[in-house]
Design goal:
This protein is α+β, with helices and mostly antiparallel strands. 46% of the residues lie in helices and 10% in strands.
Length: 469
């Protein structure tokens, strides 16, 4: 008898230290404790990034917890499986080996009362933000608060680092969520009480000066790279113990004068008496002359890729990669037709005798009809036939998904095409063709930055493959 995974699936994820995938609902006709879910596996960060549309803000379903900061995103791993990606920061899992061991252990559990763990991602370290970019973040936030104040919106509730978002150019932006109270009872702070403005603890009310106090905690975050309680930070400042306040990753990146000025500004913001704190306009004036490398784009300061023809030209692409980068669907079709199914070699297909006798002929007939339609550019028929092949489920073929992906693109169905390219990658995680087709689908969806990343990954895999021969 069989089992199937429902369309709701979960996934935890993190570029910093780790990522994990779950599947909550399993329907089965069997009564045993083992369920026929995909085995636990390691996913690439690129797979999860694509599944969540680049960890898009609109896909956030849950934000951080105080003890283990993280953000949970919704997404789609493939056409059937909706997922939730839990993205941890570095402090949640300091040791990546421990994270991986824990994830693998939990991933062995399978039960219809669990959101079963499908896999994890544990890719490298992220580089700490450079000093000029940190200064840019706090200036842009101060400018955002200044604008809101000028429009009669001086109150910002629970200002913290998780309110900072980054656009496609990696420019920092202030989330609008903090301009509204969190609930009807007027609760305005969800953070640890150690970081809450003292007047809020006394009165339960947020004032414009409370926002300045919270901004001071952000300045400490920027300087230290940690979330230091203001009372402890002020003790360090009074003792002139600046080394304890400074992120070791910033060594040599700023002068003593600049560091001292930022500490002084943070200290003013964190004054106990509201009247002794600066106003938001004075924050802008104080931070503006501290800015460094103002001519350098934010994405460059953050070492993030950026779309554009010149960046694409820098990649070494195969003919298929080139065709996908310029959305030449005719050329893609010719290349896929020429390649055939040679990349399916080595794909595991475990078939019982019953499957061979009862289903194999029907499956092969669907494939044959699909291939004929694909060859003659009858893409609607190709989609139907390949769908029949996939739904029977007795054989696994990344090439079938690649061909249906192109058929969807030819039929102006880019989202379905992206789903198929992602599914091909699930089956064959190091297949350059899957990344290239993802890029074509992403370009059709207008996601140029994500497309470039997919092209880059495909090119990198192809280079490794060629180097191994």
């Amino acid at each position: 008898m069989g089992s199937r995974v429902s369309k709701l699936t979960c996934c935890w994820g993190s570029r910093y230290k780790g990522t994990v995938l779950e599947a909550p609902d399993v329907e089965t006709e069997e009564t045993g404790e083992t369920y026929e879910l995909p085995p636990f596996q390691e996913f690439s960060f690129e797979q999860l990034r694509l599944a969540t549309s680049g960890f898009a803000v609109e896909n956030i379903v849950s934000e951080h917890g105080e003890k283990a900061p993280n953000v949970v995103y919704k997404g789609k791993l493939d056409a059937q499986r909706r997922i939730a990606v839990k993205r941890f920061n570095r402090s949640a899992w300091p040791d990546p080996r421990q994270f991986l061991e824990e994830a693998k252990a939990v991933g062995q559990l399978r039960n219809n009362r669990l959101a079963n763990l499908l896999g994890c991602c544990c890719e490298g370290e992220t580089q700490p933000m450079k000093w000029p970019m940190r200064l840019r973040v706090v200036l842009y936030l101060a400018e955002a608060l200044d604008y809101c104040t000028s429009k009669g919106r001086a109150l910002y509730h629970d200002l913290n680092a998780y309110r900072v978002l980054f656009d496609d150019d990696c420019n920092p932006r202030l989330s609008c969520f903090g301009l509204m109270k969190n609930s009807r009872d007027g609760k305005s702070y969800s953070t640890n009480l150690a970081f809450t403005p003292p007047e809020y603890l006394r009165t339960g009310r947020v004032t414009p000066e409370s926002v300045i106090y919270s901004f001071g905690t952000l300045l400490l975050d920027v300087l230290s790279g940690k979330h230091i309680p203001p009372s402890h930070a002020l003790d360090l400042i009074r003792d002139r113990n600046f080394n304890m306040l400074t992120d070791s990753c910033l060594e040599g990146q700023f002068s003593n004068e600049d560091g001292t000025e930022l500490v002084r500004l943070a200290s003013r913001c964190l004054q106990y008496e509201q009247r002794e704190r600066p106003n938001v306009k004075s924050l802008v004036l104080a931070l503006t002359p501290l800015q460094k490398e103002t001519e350098v784009a934010s994405y460059a300061l953050m070492d993030m890729p950026h779309g554009g023809a010149s960046s694409l030209e820098a990649l070494s692409l195969s003919p298929l990669g080139e065709a996908c980068s310029r959305m030449d669907l005719t050329a893609i079709h010719e290349i896929l037709e020429k390649i055939g199914y040679k990349d399916d070699e080595g794909t595991a297909n475990e078939l019982s005798f019953q499957m061979w006798t009862n289903q194999m002929q029907e499956t092969l007939n669907s494939k044959k009809k699909g291939d004929t339609a694909f060859r003659h550019k009858d893409f609607n028929t190709a989609i139907d036939c390949y769908t029949q092949f996939i739904e029977v489920g007795t054989m696994v073929s990344p090439t079938i998904f690649a061909r249906r992906c192109l058929s969807y693109l030819m039929s102006d169905m880019p989202q379905q095409a992206l789903n198929d390219a992602m599914q091909a990658l699930v089956i064959s995680p190091t297949w350059p063709t899957a990344f290239y087709l993802q890029a074509a689908a992403l370009l059709a969806l207008g996601m140029e930055n994500e497309a470039r990343e997919a092209l880059k990954d495909g090119s990198s895999l192809e280079t490794k493959k060629d180097g191994g021969h």
